[in-house]
Amino acid sequence: MNKDVKRQNWIGFILLCALGLLMNFGGARLCSATGLPLYLDTSGTIFAAVLGGYLPGITVGFLSNVVNGIVDYSSLYYSSLNVLIAVTAAYFSRKGYLKKISGILLSIVTFSLIGGALGSVMTWLLYGFDFGTGVSAPLVHRIFDKGILNAFWSQFAGDMIIDLLDKTVSVLFAAIIIRLLPDELEEKLCFYGWKQTPLTRSEADRTRKCDTRRWSLRSKLLFLIGIATTLVAVVITWIAVLLYHNSIVDQSTKLAYAATNIISSNIDPARVGEYLAKGEDATDYKAVKKRIAAILESTPDIEYVYVYKILPDGCHVVFDIDTEEVKGSPVGTVIPFDESFESHIQTLLSGGMIEPVVSNDSYGWLLTVYQPIVDAAGECQCYAGVDVSMSKLTEHEYMFFARIISLFIGFFILIIAFGVWFAEYHVIYPINSMSVATDSFAYNTEDVRHESLDRIRNLKICTGDEIEKLYHSVEKTTEDTMRYIEEANHKNEVINKMQNGLIMVLADLVESRDQYTGDHVRKTAVYAQIIMNQLKKEGVYTDQLTEEFMQDVVNSAPLHDLGKIQVPDAILNKPGRLTDEEFDLMKGHAPAGGEIIQEAIGAISEDGNSGYLKEARNLARYHHEKWDGTGYPDGIAGEDIPLSARIMAVADVYDALVSKRSYKDSFPFEKAMDIIRQGSGTHFDPAVAQAFLDAEEEVRKVSGN
Questions:
Q1: Do 99 and 185 sit in the same domain of this protein?
Q2: Residue of 233 and 544 predicted with greater confidence
């Protein structure tokens, strides 16, 4: 793949993302301008995911909420929903769902569940278990006000209704845009990121699913990316929540101290005794209490406001502000010390400052701050106390945590998508493509070898890293191997020609002693070939009739009478019938031939098994054995006789019958064939004899009859 193709893919990615963002923003602005109770901020996400796959869709979904977050920060928290819709849309597109009506309906329902169901749960958490303020808020309030459902299910029902309408419009809009898009533009917008010759979808699926002994490289990379991203997110979230917690506590403490300072400024320390003695009848007592109560009403975070005089018997109430939930204690009431203040009692009795105290008792989970109110002489007359609710702080922390998690999910999926894309196109596809190409490399013929080499060359992997270097090394090694194979094959051909030539010279040397045998050795090789071809055609002995076996039999056939080299010329060329003694000498040529070839095998092969020479030995020793066991030299029968020898028995007898010998004239073709037919089952293997008879026309052409 050249650089222009790669650059075009990136341009397509940018254009696709730009179009998707434009569709999302345009839809959202249209709804905002017209007051439509819809979002229409996912049509571009669906469009990008369907057309370009996971990466463009997720990018558009995440960036849409990030950019919208500039104007409305709460939009950031819903980026995870947009990203999940992108993942689902890309998956449905890959499965072909969006090309069918049923698939489109399934998409609408699924997207509605993501945006509506998950969105409502997220809204409930983000807003502190309360209603949100989005597009569905009016409908949610209407459902709740009618008392049909409780608060949560009102939020859920409202979000689902709005989202079902919204996703119907968004999916149909995206489907129409894709249908109207020209094929040329659609091709330009497609993004893959190949670092090699692009694969078809089926090839990519096959390449991705290469068998591995344990975890695949894709699983390992995905696991590492996921673990690394999760660990980073957990650490950052923990630090963020901890900092947020400390920040809220610090702010609450400052708020409490600020409130106690204001209380102190409204109380005359010199009149504390009067307030305790006269209570509300004291001059301006009610006015002071009213000003202190205003402090409590000024912020919802402050739970209780009071003024105590600390004495050894407990806390004497000077002011205790009433609330809707709790009625304040009357002035002068003695309140026992709380257990959480036991370590601070002596400090309080001495009028000193104490650190903020966190308690969890019948009054709730509270952060308490005490500020001493001193008179002109520097004596502490009482303490201004403020309790800040820690439950409300925890609620804020839950909301903060939910927002962090919602932001992380979208970002996590985006990182995973980029990680998987990079791993697949830069690592997995190149490596697995090399693996598939080398695994399927075939050496059968020269054409097949060149086709296999071309498959490796055509990968054109260009990752620019060690993988590309590995690819070039594999390519070079394969080319070198091909060259060595071709050189070895050429040398083998030369050796085989020399070998076959020597065999024929040796056979001719034996034949030259017999003035009548002529080209007997050559014809018997041809007859053997005809028999083997016919046997294979008829499906007989196919497990033994391999290409190698057949070639060995043909090549070694000329050596079947090699043992005759030890038979005297007088016997070999005797014009009349041989005596019993002479025939015994003649029969000795079979074991003699086998022994000669066995010596040759031992000379060139330590294990005694050397290709065609093994069949040459079998032919030489056993070609006079008979099916019924009456042959020589060993008298073996049936399939104990090697198949090559059973084939040669028919070929040798037939050629002897139709050839002129020193002791007889040649037989007519028909008579020779009858003799073969009559010998089936006694002299000859019935299957071999029948194959020879079935190939009558070919036999006739070779014998010239």
A1: yes
A2: 544
Secondary structure letter of residue 425 according to DSSP = I
Domain range spanning residue 546? 512-703
Residue 637 domain-assigned (yes or no): yes
What is the four-CA torsion angle of 96, 99, 103, 104, rounded to 10 degrees? 130
Give the pLDDT mean for 42-71. 87
Q: Which of 193, 213, 237 is where one domain is finished?
A: 193
Q: Could you tell me if 189 and 250 lie in one domain?
A: no
Residue 471 belongs to a domain: no
Q: Give per-residue pLDDT as tens, 512-541.
A: 555 544 477 788 889 999 999 999 999 999
**Are 196 and 66 spatial neighbours (Cβ–Cβ below 8 Å)?**
no
What is the secondary structure of 286-336 as a DSSP string? HHHHHHHHHHHHH-TTEEEEEEEEEETTEEEEEEE---SS-PPPPTT-EEP
CB atoms within 10 A of CB 345: 14
Do 568 and 669 fall within a single domain?
A: yes
State pLDDT tens for residues 596-621.
888 877 776 555 456 678 888 899 89
Last residue within a domain, chosen from 178, 193, 208: 193
Q: Is residue 610 part of a domain?
A: yes
Q: What distance in Å separates the CA atoms of residue 624 and residue 649, rounded to the nearest whole number?
A: 6
Is a pLDDT exceeding 50 seen at residue 372? yes
Q: Tokens 């006789």 map to which residue?
A: 641
Identify the pLDDT of residue 577.
Answer: 78
Overall domain count for the chain = 3
First to last CA, the chain: 65
- DSSP lists the bridge partners of residue 304 as 387
Average pLDDT value over all residues in the chain: 84
172 in Cβ contact with 111 (< 8 Å) = no
Residue 454 lies in a domain: no
State the DSSP string of 629-689.
Answer: S--SSS---GGGS-HHHHHHHHHHHHHHHHS-BTTBPPPPHHHHHHHHHHHBTTTB-HHHH
Q: Whole-model pTM?
A: 0.58
